[in-house]
Amino acid sequence: MKENIKKNSINDILEALGDIPQAEGLHIYINKENIIENPFPYPFRSDSYTIMIILSGSSKIQFNLIDYTLQANDIILTSPHTVTHIKEIESSVSLIGINFTMNFALSHSLNRTDVSAFEFFASKTALSLKLKESEVSILSKLTELLHEKNTTKSTFYSKEILAHSFNLLMYQVAAIYSERYATTITKMTRKEELTSKFIKLLEENFKKERKVQFYSDLLNLTAAHLSKILKEVSGKTTGELIDAVVITEACILLANPALSISQISDELNFSDQSFFGKFFKKHIGLSPSEYRRKT
């Protein structure tokens, strides 16, 4: 069933953005016009790794149930594990996006043994940082170089130049994260650590376990104390986060026409299709079939 979960390929994303696909496994998106309307109003998973740099504007986006407000000079990294839900374009957004598959990265890596520099891409959590103006400038220039090499016709050493350009950009991103993200992690509070652990446990168990007590027991906390911590850090209680991850997964599954609503109900471990329908309508305001017709 997991194989049936709908993912947006690089080409699906480009079609929504009105762009043309580039090389197999790599696409550089430098938007020529500001994005005003939300191109993806429903939650989705991508089949690629993404580096997104916000040049201007503001957008509210949810990654794996955690809310982010992305603004100018923000960079965020996401992996194919990430469930993305663009909630709102607050002001027209201009951005740079680098999308690549693992196959592309492996086939264009100059030093396959030096994987530690890119270990942050293995994270299931979206990693966000505020860049300095000088860092935005460097990354923009490297992205433009990579875009040029990715879209020009084959010349002498074109594959080698593309590989070097890709690696140069990756190492520059790695250097920024290695220097600054480690400091961010060390400053993580006990409450933030517990929230991170809860989200990981929830991702692994939500289809079978939806009781608050199950998670509080695993974290050696009372249910009330866990809910208080999660509310402070994420703005949602334990129960609200559990319901949110179930609804998000339901929306992703409903986007796949190959799955019946009964199959989706079973996959999410509801006692029957009717109970699933009532649960879904309570949170979304539409029945599963109505939601499917609108997506």
Topology overview:
Elements: E1 7-8, H1 10-17, E2 26-30, E3 44-46, E4 49-63, E5 66-71, E6 74-78, E7 83-100, H2 102-107, E8 127-130, H3 133-151, H4 158-186, H5 190-205, H6 212-218, H7 223-234, H8 238-254, H9 261-267, H10 273-284, H11 288-294
Parallel strand pairs: 1-3
Antiparallel strand pairs: 2-7, 3-7, 4-5, 4-6, 4-7, 6-8
Short overview:
The protein is 47% helix and 20% strand. By secondary structure, it is of the alpha+beta class.
Keywords for this entry:
single chain, 295 residues, alpha+beta, Jelly Rolls, Arc Repressor Mutant, subunit A, 2 domains, 8-stranded mixed beta sheet, 11 helices, 8 strands, 47% helix, disordered N terminus
Description:
The chain has 295 residues and is an alpha+beta fold. The chain folds into two domains: 2-186, Regulatory protein AraC (Jelly Rolls, Sandwich), CATH 2.60.120; 190-294, Homeodomain-like (Arc Repressor Mutant, subunit A). It has helices at residues 10-17, 102-107, 133-151, 158-186, 190-205, 212-218, 223-234, 238-254, 261-267, 273-284, 288-294; strands at residues 7-8, 26-30, 44-46, 49-63, 66-71, 74-78, 83-100, 127-130. Strands 1, 2, 3, 4, 5, 6, 7 and 8 form an eight-stranded mixed sheet that branches. β4 and β5 form a beta hairpin. The radius of gyration is 20 Å and the shape is globular.
